[in-house]
Amino acid sequence: MSTYSPPAVSTLTDSACWAHLRSAAVGRLAVCVKGQPEILPINYVVDHTTIVFRTAEGTKFSAAVAGGDLALEADGYDPETSEAWSVVIKGSGKHIVRPDDLIDTTELPLLPWHPGPKDRFIRILAREITGRRFHVADSATWRTPVTGSPHAPSE
């Protein structure tokens, strides 16, 4: 019988969630399109307590400004501490159109990774933010449920 017990998962404070989001550049935008969930990668920046991303006309833009709920998830791993984190924001999207807001937004360090025009700026207004952090177990402690044999070490 194994005596291994996994380390606890820590809940992050709101300020820790925002700090982690500031440390990452890529997240996954979850939207609903034609009644089906879609998860799309985006690069983003944190602007105070909102998320801003650039996009073109299309699925992301239409879904983000349709007035429905959306979510953003980002995560990371610190090899020095062997800790992983995940943050989820639930909220709504707003197309940035006011000239003053657009000027402020274009000064953010937000450059699209994908070539082509990305002239639409979307702000995610967070209604709820949650996060967690946990220590990543050494792969030598992992066991498959059927055979009990260890998983291959991570590469």
TrEMBL record:
InterPro entries: Pyridox_Oxase-rel, Split_barrel_FMN-bd. Pfam families: Pyridox_ox_2. It comes from the Bacteria. Gene3D superfamilies: Electron Transport, Fmn-binding Protein, Chain A. This is Pyridoxamine 5'-phosphate oxidase family protein.
